[in-house]
Amino acid sequence: MTVEPARSAASRSTAAPSPWAPPGGRAAWLAWSIGVSVYVLAVIHRTSLGVAGLDAADRFGIGASALSTFSILQVLVYAAMQIPVGLLVDRFGPRRVLLTGVVLLSVGQLAFAFSSAFGPALVSRAVLGCGDAMTFISVLRIAARWFPAARNPFVAQLTGLVGMGGNLITTVVLAQVLHQEGWTPTFTAIALLGVAVFALVALFLREAPAGVAEAQPQGGERPPIGRQVRDCWREPGTRLGLWVHFTTQFPGNVFGLLWGLPYLVEAQGMSRAGAGGMLTLLVLSNMTAGFVFGRVLSRTARARMPIVLTVIGVTAFGWALALAWPGGHPPMWLLVGLVVVMGSNGPASLVGMDYARAHNPSERLGTASGIVNMGGFIGTMISLLGIGVLLDALTPEGTDGYPVDAFRWAFCWLYVPLAVGTLMILRLRRKVIA
Predict the structure, then answer these.
(1) Residue 325 falls within a domain, yes or no?
(2) Is residue 422 part of a domain?
(3) Would you say 155 and 147 are in contact if contact means Cβ atoms under 8 Å apart?
(4) What is the mean pLDDT of residues 132-157?
(5) What CA–CA distance (Å, rounded) separates 422 from 107?
(6) C-beta separation of 407 from 219 below 8 A
(7) How far apart are the first and last CA of the chain?
(8) Residue 4 lies in a domain
(9) SS3 sequence, 7-68?
(10) DSSP letter for each residue of 89-138
(11) Would you give the DSSP letter of residue 218?
(12) pTM for this one?
């Protein structure tokens, strides 16, 4: 199998070397830790609906399609904001963008806590998605400024790993608090966490080492916004990164953000506690895979494509076994294995960020990262909508909950974006090699 070089000739000619070397060290880890605290908060907000889906359906009196609209709109706003956020990070710096993101996250979640009707709750999730969009790219930009280039793949994976700590808080703590305290107190408490995080970033975060500046564009002036976006898009490495992110991230996202709990409870007959344990396993698997992938990628860029194609293949095979199992009730070992496999989806999607970083100069890295980061969330949005629509269409009227066969056929929708994304990866991979 032909393996792409760490960097194409085209990218070497466009990415000018930086006039300074990021130092790393304790100061770098401190700056990254402050930035990643915002990302952890964003993941808590993002995944909060994953353990509250059935409660939301009861509170707002909605079905599967309407319920999926919450996550779809949140993800749609997140994806739509990626390029604007990348441009903002390139022009105004990650610290200001992170502070804005914390404010939007807190306002959106507070409004969601007090919403009692579907419309206002939907708007609040859109605001939350906008704030969420401002976190991950900003943290990656901080890492690029503080750490040597060879450390960036590991730090990116570590960012995803630590961010999954927010998901762990959601599945372990939030689910229990929601059951004990109720809707409004639980989501209000999450919103108020933003006050402490805002103060931490405002008082202590430094974007870059003292006395140094980033490499400036040739000629000293930044290109117009449209040209900067076009230059990023014309780079095959950016587009390859987008499709890697698209294809690898969405299965685990769909399961963790919304449909995992209903599938395990209603289709597989598990208790809420048991389903919550499976979602916790998803998070732990994600964190483990992130650490392993980060160590491998920090040693060799040649591991990128083998990791991506392996994760895609194993995920597709695992779902095929589960959905084709007679009666629609796969054994526990298979469900556990499927959840563990989906835990690798998020870390594999970060390989797309490595492609963007390797094939773009530093002055447009935020924009390129934003383009790539749209991919997985577009795939998530398409899958959330497709599964929700199919569940409603395949469930007879008057049925209490969703039958097993409805879930089986609805989850077959996952293979549509998987197939499209894999074909695009193989096509663009050849262009990057050339």
Answers:
(1) yes
(2) yes
(3) yes
(4) 87
(5) 38
(6) no
(7) 15
(8) no
(9) CCHHHHHHCCCCCCCCCCHHHHHHHHHHHHHHHHHHHHHHHHHHHCHHHHHHHHCCCHHHHH
(10) HHHH-HHHHHHHHHHHHHHHHHHHHH--SHHHHHHHHHHHHHHHHTTHHH
(11) T
(12) 0.73
DSSP output for 393-413 = HHSPTT-SS--HHHHHHHHGG
Residues 205 and 98: beta-carbon distance below 8 Å: yes
Rounded to 5°, the CA angle 209-212-217 comes to 125
Res. 211 pLDDT band, cuts 50 70 90: low
CATH code, domain with 190: 1.20.1250.20
Look at residue 400 and tell me whether its pLDDT is greater than 70: yes
Q: What is the pLDDT of residues 279-334, one digit of tens each?
A: 889 988 988 998 899 888 888 888 899 999 999 999 999 999 999 999 889 999 99
Instruction: Write out the two tokens for 223.
Output: 């290109």
CA distance readout (Å), 120 to 113, 184, 275: 10, 14, 29
Average pLDDT over residues 250-255: 92
Range of the domain at 164: 26-209+225-433
User: Which are the contacts of 185, defined by CB distance < 8 A and separation ≥ 6?
Assistant: 113, 177
Residue 403 lies in a domain: yes
Domains identified in the chain, total number? 1
In whole angstroms, what is the distance from residue 265 CA to residue 49 CA?
A: 16
